[in-house]
Design a protein that fits this description.
This protein is mainly alpha-helical. It is built from seven helices and no strands.
């Protein structure tokens, strides 16, 4: 009886992996992408960056990962850069697979595609007032 339950459990696991694999995101063709951040997002400029696998090449999500539009629209740049570098929930970290410049390129594309809050600029200070 235990052997039968174990086989069912293994079979259920294999089916779950197959279903999730079928729901993987779609990589967009490089020749159809203009923004360097989206080129990265789709794994064309750095093979270790495969955001498209979960979020689709357009960032709108798949069965593996969520649509990025709602989160990107409300998160500040620093939070998005940290998520890309350190990961979040089921998303792996990409800090060791990307440079700061690459993460900023991806952020630039996400902002262009989905908008969001601009980083607060430091107020200008008159040097004479500081003394």
């Amino acid at each position: 009886m235990a052997q039968k339950s174990a086989r069912h459990l293994v079979l259920a696991g294999l089916i779950a992996v197959a279903v999730v694999g079928c729901a993987a995101g779609v990589q967009l063709a490089k020749d159809g992408i203009a923004h360097p951040g989206q080129v990265l997002f789709n794994g064309h400029a750095n093979a270790e960056v495969d955001c498209f696998r979960c979020h689709n090449g357009n960032g709108r999500g798949s069965g593996r990962g969520p649509d990025l539009a709602p989160e990107v629209a409300k998160l500040p740049d620093a939070a998005i850069l940290e998520i890309i570098a350190k990961g979040a929930a089921f998303m792996p970290a990409y800090g060791d697979r990307t440079s700061e410049e690459e993460r900023r390129q991806i952020l630039g594309w996400l902002r262009e595609a989905f908008g969001g809050p601009a980083e607060a600029e430091a107020p200008e200070v008159d040097a004479e007032e500081v003394e």
